[in-house]
Specification:
The chain is an alpha+beta fold and about 325 residues long. The chain is about 40% helix and about 20% strand. Bound molecules: phenylalanine.
C-alpha cells in the first residue's frame, strides 16, 4: 500500500488529485482504513505488529502528502507571479489627450483681440424670434432682403437665427438707449444651405457692435485694420468695398490682402490678391431708434465675420465641413497651432 500510495503522490499534478489520493488511502473507505478495521480478526500476538506497521504507513503517506502539497502550492504561486509580472523597463504607452477644437481656438483668439480693445463678450439665443432676427434689424415681413438668408423656421414667429446680428438689437434694448455699447458676440447660426466645401447649414459668426456719441466710419476702419494685422500679420492691408445690408447704412464688405497662389489645391487667394472676410457698416438709424437710441445723438458701427472662413484662410483649410465632421487626423494637426 505504501509504495503504491507514494508513487501516486509523486505523480499528482495538482492539489485536487492529491486530495483524491488522500481519500483513497486514508479516508473512511480508504485502503489503509480497511486494514485497521480488519484488526479484530487478527490474533492477539499479531495485532501490535500489524498496528505499528499500519501507523508507520499512515505517517509515511501523510508526511509525503504534506510535502507534495507544499510543493504544488509553490509551483502554483510561481506560475501566478510569472503571469502577473510587470516589466518595469518597457516604455510606457502614451496617454491620448484631447485639445481644443481649431474653431474654439480661433474664436478665443478673436475674443481676446477685441477684449484688448475694450469690447465686452456677450451671448444670445440660437432659437430666435422673427422680430429680433429680422424686424428689429430693419427687415420687415415681406422684405426682399430676407431671402439673402434662407431660414429654418420653427413656427411662424420662431426660427433658428440666421446670423448673430439679433444680439445687436437685444444688447441695445438692455442698455436702455442711454449707455454706450461696445460688445462682440460669438455664436452658432443656421441657414438652409446645401453643405459643400464652402457652405454649411450650421456655422459660426462673431458679431461686433459699438454704439456711442460720435462713433464714425473711421473708427470702424481703424479697429478692423488692427484686427486684420493682429490676426494675419503686420504686412496685411485691408480695403472696404461698398455693399448692402438692411441694418447698416452705409454698408461695406472688408477684404484683406493676400499672396496670390495658383494651381491645384489653391482655394485661399485666387486672382485679385484680395479676399473678403466680413460684412460691416454704420448702424442704420431705424435699428438705433427701434432699440431705443436717438439716432440724432448716437451713432454706431457693426460688423459680422465667420470664424471658419478666418481659420480657413489662416491655416489653409479648404473644406468648411472639416470643422464639423471631426476627423481626428484633421483636428490633431492644430492642437499645437
Ligand atoms: N449679419 C450679416 C451677415 O450675416 C453680417 C453683418 C453684420 C453685416 C453686421 C453688417 C453688420 O451676412
Amino acid at each position: 500500500i505504501q509504495t503504491e500510495a507514494l508513487e501516486k503522490i509523486g505523480q499528482a499534478a495538482d492539489t485536487k488529485e492529491l486530495q483524491e489520493i488522500k481519500v483513497a488511502y486514508l479516508g473512511k473507505k480508504g485502503s489503509l482504513t480497511n486494514v485497521l478495521r480488519g484488526m479484530g480478526k487478527i490474533s492477539k500476538e499479531e495485532r501490535p505488529v500489524i498496528g505499528e506497521m499500519a501507523n508507520k504507513v499512515r505517517e509515511a503517506i501523510t508526511a509525503t502528502l504534506n510535502e507534495k502539497s507544499e510543493k504544488l502550492e509553490l509551483v502554483a504561486l510561481e506560475k501566478q507571479l510569472e503571469k502577473e509580472a510587470i516589466d518595469v523597463t518597457l516604455p510606457g504607452r502614451p496617454i491620448k489627450v484631447g485639445g481644443p477644437h481649431l474653431l474654439t481656438k480661433i474664436v478665443e483668439e478673436i475674443e481676446d483681440l477685441f477684449i484688448g480693445m475694450g469690447f465686452e463678450v456677450r451671448e444670445g439665443p440660437e432659437v430666435e424670434t422673427d422680430y429680433y432676427n429680422f424686424e428689429a434689424l430693419n427687415l420687415p415681413k415681406g422684405h426682399p432682403a430676407r431671402d439673402m438668408q434662407d431660414t429654418f423656421y420653427l413656427t411662424n414667429e420662431l426660427l433658428m437665427r440666421t446670423h448673430t446680428s439679433p444680439v445687436q438689437a437685444r444688447t441695445m434694448r438692455e442698455f436702455d438707449g442711454q449707455k454706450p455699447v461696445k460688445m462682440i458676440c460669438p455664436g452658432k447660426v443656421y441657414r438652409r444651405d446645401t453643405d459643400d466645401a464652402t457652405h454649411s447649414h450650421q456655422f459660426t459668426q462673431i458679431e461686433g457692435l459699438y454704439v456711442d456719441k460720435n462713433v464714425t466710419m473711421s473708427d470702424l476702419k481703424g479697429i478692423l485694420d488692427v484686427f486684420a494685422k493682429k490676426m494675419f500679420g503686420a504686412d496685411r492691408e485691408i480695403r472696404l468695398r461698398p455693399s448692402f445690408f438692411p441694418f447698416t447704412e452705409p454698408s461695406v464688405e472688408m477684404d484683406i490682402s493676400c499672396k496670390v497662389c495658383g494651381g491645384e489645391g489653391c482655394s485661399v487667394c485666387k486672382g485679385t490678391g484680395w479676399i473678403e472676410i466680413l460684412g460691416a457698416g454704420m448702424v442704420h438709424p431705424n435699428v438705433l431708434s427701434m432699440a431705443g437710441y436717438d439716432p440724432e445723438v448716437y451713432t454706431g458701427f457693426a460688423f459680422g465675420m465667420g470664424p471658419e472662413r478666418i481659420a480657413m484662410l489662416k491655416y489653409g483649410v479648404n473644406d468648411i465641413r472639416q470643422f464639423y465632421t471631426n476627423d481626428i487626423r484633421f483636428l490633431k494637426q492644430y492642437h499645437n497651432a
